[in-house]
């Protein structure tokens, strides 16, 4: 169950969840928690595991839940445009809409990356601040239709025939309410879900969420760009020999597809905020400790090991990139290699 705990004089919202039942556990615990508790920083514990959450377990929770929402039950929550950008579907139920808003808010709060191509329009809807560029970026034809309807009477009549009489923010010149246009076009049967999406997001912050309602700021948690090995190395605390570190980073340089897998193995995230390790584990609020990526070595006969709690990766002392790559291929497929 969800509990409120006191840790180092700071109130935390503790989630105790099963990895295999993460959706049900989170929904059940959020649904019975008072709203004021949802505003506290998260403290995550996975059932049957002894790892202590100093940052990594929150990342894992966000990553696993994101995978479930954006992939496993994608069709019941999202629709995608031709560029693969996500937007809430009009079939999304209020419960999932609230959970999505809560997830995005907590990812922002804890500076955790959600590696899916969420549209700026969805973020603008969540922030209740839709701009013309948000619509244009997601659906160019609809944006043009709105613009032409404002400028030409015959197109305006066509708009009324298709979507009904729009809400106008001004008569002369004619300006159509962008929020009303978007809601009518995409969410005619799911306005309640939009309200729950916004409520879920706003429930996550200890101060008014409007302070964070900026699509550029929120977009920093949605990263799909290639991970830079040079940046990774620059912002890593190296606690092993430079020879072993060179083997590791050279292996990453020559294996693009393994980068996100190894990062997830080490931190619980598939990418880094703002596309830089400089922001890895950097708290949104002052007074919280930043976790940096750490690279350590272990005995040569072992497989790579990780502690997502402390963003620590331990690699065996090997003589070549290929040997290390083979070890990672095994380790990445194994469970229960997390160290306390």
UniProtKB/TrEMBL annotation:
<comment type="pathway">
    <text>Protein modification; protein ubiquitination.</text>
</comment>
<keyword id="KW-0436">Ligase</keyword>
<dbReference type="GO" id="GO:0006511">
    <property type="term" value="P:ubiquitin-dependent protein catabolic process"/>
</dbReference>
<dbReference type="InterPro" id="IPR050409">
    <property type="entry name" value="E3_ubiq-protein_ligase"/>
</dbReference>
<protein>
    <recommendedName>
        <fullName>HECT-type E3 ubiquitin transferase</fullName>
        <ecNumber>2.3.2.26</ecNumber>
    </recommendedName>
</protein>
<keyword id="KW-0833">Ubl conjugation pathway</keyword>
<feature type="domain" description="HECT">
    <location>
        <begin position="38"/>
        <end position="333"/>
    </location>
</feature>
<dbReference type="GO" id="GO:0005737">
    <property type="term" value="C:cytoplasm"/>
</dbReference>
<dbReference type="GO" id="GO:0061630">
    <property type="term" value="F:ubiquitin protein ligase activity"/>
</dbReference>
<dbReference type="Pfam" id="PF00632">
    <property type="entry name" value="HECT"/>
</dbReference>
<dbReference type="GO" id="GO:0016874">
    <property type="term" value="F:ligase activity"/>
</dbReference>
<feature type="active site" description="Glycyl thioester intermediate">
    <location>
        <position position="309"/>
    </location>
</feature>
<dbReference type="GO" id="GO:0016567">
    <property type="term" value="P:protein ubiquitination"/>
</dbReference>
<dbReference type="InterPro" id="IPR035983">
    <property type="entry name" value="Hect_E3_ubiquitin_ligase"/>
</dbReference>
<dbReference type="InterPro" id="IPR000569">
    <property type="entry name" value="HECT_dom"/>
</dbReference>
<keyword id="KW-0808">Transferase</keyword>
């Amino acid at each position: 169950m969800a509990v409120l705990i006191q840790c180092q004089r700071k109130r935390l919202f503790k989630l105790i969840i099963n990895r295999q039942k993460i959706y049900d556990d989170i929904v059940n615990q959020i649904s019975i928690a008072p709203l004021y508790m949802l505003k506290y920083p998260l403290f995550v514990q996975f059932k049957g595991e002894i790892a202590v959450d100093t940052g990594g377990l929150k990342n894992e929770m966000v990553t696993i839940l994101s995978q479930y929402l954006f992939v496993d039950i994608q069709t019941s929550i999202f629709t995608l445009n031709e560029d693969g950008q996500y937007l809430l579907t009009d079939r999304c139920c209020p419960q999932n809409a609230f959970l999505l808003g809560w997830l995005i808010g907590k990812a922002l709060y804890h500076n955790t990356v959600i590696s899916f191509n969420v549209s700026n329009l969805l973020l603008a809807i969540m922030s209740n601040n839709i701009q013309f560029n948000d619509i244009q970026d997601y659906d160019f034809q609809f944006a043009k239709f709105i613009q032409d309807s404002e400028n030409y009477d015959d197109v305006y009549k066509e708009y009324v025939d298709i979507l009904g009489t729009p809400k106008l923010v001004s008569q002369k010149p004619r300006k159509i309410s962008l929020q009303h246009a978007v809601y009518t076009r995409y969410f005619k049967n799911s306005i309640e879900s939009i309200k729950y999406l916004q409520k879920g997001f706003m429930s996550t912050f200890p101060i008014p969420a409007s302070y964070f309602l900026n699509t550029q700021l929120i977009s920093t948690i949605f990263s799909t760009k290639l991970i830079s090995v040079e940046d990774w190395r620059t912002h890593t605390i190296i606690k092993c020999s430079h020879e072993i570190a060179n083997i590791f980073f050279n292996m990453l340089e020559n294996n693009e597809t393994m980068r996100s897998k190894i990062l997830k193995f080490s931190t619980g995230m598939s990418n880094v905020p703002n596309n830089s390790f400089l922001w890895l584990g950097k708290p949104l609020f002052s007074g919280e400790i930043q976790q940096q990526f750490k690279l350590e070595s272990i005995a040569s006969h072992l497989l790579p090991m990780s502690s997502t709690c402390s963003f620590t990766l331990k690699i065996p002392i090997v003589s070549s990139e290929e040997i290390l790559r083979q070890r990672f291929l095994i380790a990445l497929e194994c469970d229960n290699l997390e160290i306390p």
